[in-house]
Amino acid sequence: MTTAAPTATRPRTRLGLGVGMDLPWGARTGFRETDDGGDITPRVRTFLERHAGDFAYSFFAFQPRHRARLRTADYVTAYDRLYAAMPGLHTRAFHHTLLNMGTPEAYDRRPAAEFANALHARYGYYWVVEDLGIWSLQGRPLPYPLPPVLTEEGLRLATANARQARELLEPPLHVEFPGFTEGGSFVLGGLDGFDYFRRLAEDADVHVTLDVGHVLSYQWLKGRTGRAMFDELERLPLDRCRELHLSGCQIVNGKFRDLHHGILLDEQIELTRHLLPRCPNLLGVTYEDPVYGDDGELVEKSRRNYARLRDLVTAWAGRDTP
After folding, report:
1. Neighbours of 144 (CB within 10 A)
2. Which of 41, 70, 218, 252 has the fewest Cβ atoms within 10 Å of its own Cβ atom?
């Protein structure tokens, strides 16, 4: 099966609501091994049959099939079948996990960029996104990407990394604001995270994605809870933001947890409502990592705020662009 890159005219206005999926190999919600190259699991197929029409665009996050040398041929059969299961969604993005832009170590990004470019030639990605994090150290992947080192030298190195990734990639690069989950990661350096991210975006000349949960995780780390969660947001590069992400989060014993369990916090909906009119170049809002059963239905606890998000984004996307 071969899927040609879409030839439809690229959208130039608001896309609306998108879906982002983390699809590990061997999980019930992910990719499965087959004798002829791999496929999505029945659970994923059922979800897409039921819900793909709810969304205006899609991305999935790259998960390695194995630790052998990265080869496009090892993945495209499974990816072809994923895209064949959502034929109406021709606007596609790709969430990379190998650019490793936050690392202070020397790192060769060319294989990861060449891989993404080959997929782009086949599938026509509108952008490539990756969190500004430390995804691996000395060649060993981390269980959760760490924030970049918040020092002037760390900023210099991360900016050079992001600039290099932008230059290597054929699709536009979106650099995503990193997560600062207390207890799940740790922070080195004393620079302000919002200032750091704005300076990097401007100096590397990149578009950005704001993960609403990641922004809230930083606010919680700084003690800015309740109405204070709106403080200091103007220090972010809002004019460069082209995408918002929302994934399931939870407050546990007063600490923010980025759990990706599908259940959105009320605070995420309210922060999204606040950001929509303040991001003049925003293209879309992504519901990331929906959680569902074998019947393809979203878990019950996620439905209320998913519906609120869908209605909020539908109203935003229907307005005339200023």
Report:
1. 13
2. 252
Q: What is the pLDDT of residue 253?
A: 83
**Amino acid letter, 105:** E
Distance CA 149, CA 154 (A): 5
Paired strand residues for 292: 298
Entry pTM: 0.94
Retrieve residue 59's tokens.
Answer: 């991305």
Residues written for the chain? 322
The label of the residue with tokens 């605070």 reads 267
What is the SS3 string spanning 41-97?
A: CHHHHHHHHHHHHHCCEEEEECCCCCCCCCCHHHCHHHHHHHHHCCCCCCCEEEECC
* pLDDT confidence band for 309 (50 / 70 / 90): very high
- 240 Cβ neighbours under 8 A, 6+ residues apart: 201, 202, 206, 207, 208, 281
CA 6 – CA 88 distance, rounded (Å) = 11
